[in-house]
Amino acid sequence: DAGVIQSPRHEVTEMGQEVTLRCKPISGHNSLFWYRQTMMRGLELLIYFNNNVPIDDSGMPEDRFSAKMPNASFSTLKIQPSEPRDSAVYFCASSLGQVDGYTFGSGTRLTVV
Amino acid sequence: GNSVTQMEGPVTLSEEAFLTINCTYTATGYPSLFWYVQYPGEGLQLLLKATKADDKGSNKGFEATYRKETTSFHLEKGSVQVSDSAVYFCALISGGYNKLIFGAGTRLAVHP
Fold this sequence. Notes:
The structure holds two protein chains of two kinds. Chain A is mainly beta.
């Protein structure tokens, strides 16, 4: 298995633009998680899905952030409009069960200028 | 609620020194416990895990024992290498939906 695949690896965009981050989880995993990592705030859980259904989005910072999981093999995290304070590394992770832990993708480094 | 507390870093050691990174947790029920490692510029990788009391997880020379009586899962390695320099995260899963709760992370720097 290729692992959790995220795209793009790097994204530089101007303030006010829409940004879409993509994630392909490991086949067969039934849970998917989006995290944001910054030096100031560390690792933050934004939202997670179980069987493609959003379970908890309490970590989504504002209405500018939205996430979808239209099927078991694809998820997106969208920021519209983007702001400089959204600059961070965004990780996607997937999981099969409680005893297995998560498999993380390599992350998307987002820079909003 | 569930939470994980780990020692603040950075931890700075010389090569071949003994490493301990403390981790304690608060959880309802019987959590599964994990250590993740993040090398510079990379995502988090599962280092080791333990799913029930007294289990010992081990990988790449690292070990951690699930201690229910002290609610701890301390990470140890007998002889660290420069290549072990990274950020280490303690984490737990408890309850439904596989939600992983992370500690704040501990940065380890190993010098030759």
